[in-house]
Amino acid sequence: PASTAPFFVLAGAADKAIVIKRIRISGATLTAVAYLNIALGKYSTNPTGGTATAATAVPFKTGFPASSASLVQGYTAAPTAGTLVGDLSAVRLLGQATTATSGSYLYDYEFEFDDTLPFAVVGSAENFALRFTAAPATAVTLSVNVEWEEYNLKS
Q1: Could you count the other beta carbons within 10 Å of the beta carbon of residue 27?
Q2: 53/61 Cα distance (integer angstroms)
Q3: pTM for this one?
Q4: Mind giving me the DSSP string for the chain?
Q5: What backbone torsions phi and psi does residue 112 show, to the nearest 5 degrees?
Q6: Which of 128, 130, 123 is nearest to 26 (CA)?
Q7: Which of the given ranges, 22-26, 51-55, 57-61, 106-110, has the highest pLDDT on average?
Q8: What does each C-alpha distance from 40 to 9, 19, 66, 101, 118 come to in angstroms?
Q9: pLDDT tens-digit profile of 57-104?
């Protein structure tokens, strides 16, 4: 969505800690070439409303358990954001025009995290979300790839 509301959300699970290892954003296109500022925020409550499309969480290895994440989804219509705890990181990227004359070179932008101090959400209400810090002039199409690990919480 062309707004500052979250466009991708990964929410936790009741009995797990979810730790993000890497986020890759690629292929950003919109009507005209423009810079896009994308923030990775941590939220204490999940978004509501909007039009969401669930992503398929695929384990890297056969035999690994299915994901416990309560939300893994992108939005085509903006939701109402949950309560922002704070921004953890940000990237600035150049979105290409969708016209054929704009060229076809696509950039990858990655958020990578240090294993010594991982970003984690605990419980099904906490979540990570990607959002534009300023509303783009037009709707943006892009790809998001997220790698995460899940750990059982000690009782």
Answers
A1: 13
A2: 24
A3: 0.89
A4: --SSSEEEEEE-BTTEEEEEEEEEEEEEEESS-EEEEEEEEEESS--BSSEEEEPP---SSTTPPPP--SEEEEEEE--B---EEEEEEEEEEEEEESSGGG-----EEEEE--TTS-EEEESSS-EEEEEESS--SS--EEEEEEEEEEEEPP-
A5: -120, 145
A6: 130
A7: 51-55
A8: 10, 14, 24, 31, 14
A9: 988 888 888 899 988 999 999 999 999 999 998 989 888 888 755 554
Q: Encoding tokens for residue 106?
A: 């696509």
Which two tokens mark 144? 């998001």
